[in-house]
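can u do me a favor
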């Protein structure tokens, strides 16, 4: 059984989302350091790690084109896209606060609320991503167990045949 890396979604999309995570973390560090800001930074770092971990998931050749695998791969692509959009919108919002006094004033007034809402969206997306990756892992484990059972049946059948 030869294993290979099956890429979920575009590597470029995952990389772009990871880079955006890093940019948001830098912007958050440049502002005042509230506890909500620190918690949001932790969630973003965890999301970055999650994105790195799903870049390649090893599967054998037999499962790369199964309908379930393809469906889950599409779902992972969708989740990465959702993560990217959420982070991009937030990045644009906090980056705009550097562009003028009024933006800075509005951001200062709503920072805690905005950070809390953003962190909750990141947690929601991480959870959804984890569920989909868990589905993939479960499917892979079932496939491996099925192959082990087939091998055991063949071995048992071959050992029962007595040569003349």
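np, heres the sequence
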């Amino acid at each position: 059984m030869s294993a290979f890396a099956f890429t979920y979604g575009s590597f470029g999309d995952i990389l772009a989302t990871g880079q955006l995570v890093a940019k948001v973390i830098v912007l958050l560090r440049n502002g005042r350091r509230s506890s909500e800001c620190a918690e949001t930074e932790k969630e973003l770092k965890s999301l970055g790690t999650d994105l790195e971990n799903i870049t390649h998931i090893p599967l054998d050749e037999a499962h790369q084109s199964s309908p379930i695998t393809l469906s889950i791969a599409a779902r992972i692509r969708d989740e990465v896209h959702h993560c990217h959009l959420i982070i991009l919108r937030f990045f644009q919002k906090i980056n705009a606060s550097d562009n003028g006094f009024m933006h800075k004033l509005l951001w200062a007034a709503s920072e805690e609320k905005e950070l809390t809402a953003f962190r909750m969206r990141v947690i929601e997306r991480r959870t959804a991503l984890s569920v989909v990756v868990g589905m993939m892992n479960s499917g892979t484990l079932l496939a491996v167990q099925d192959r082990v059972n087939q091998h055991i049946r063949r071995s048992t059948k071959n050992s029962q045949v007595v040569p003349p």
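The chain has one domain: 3-159. hope that helps!!
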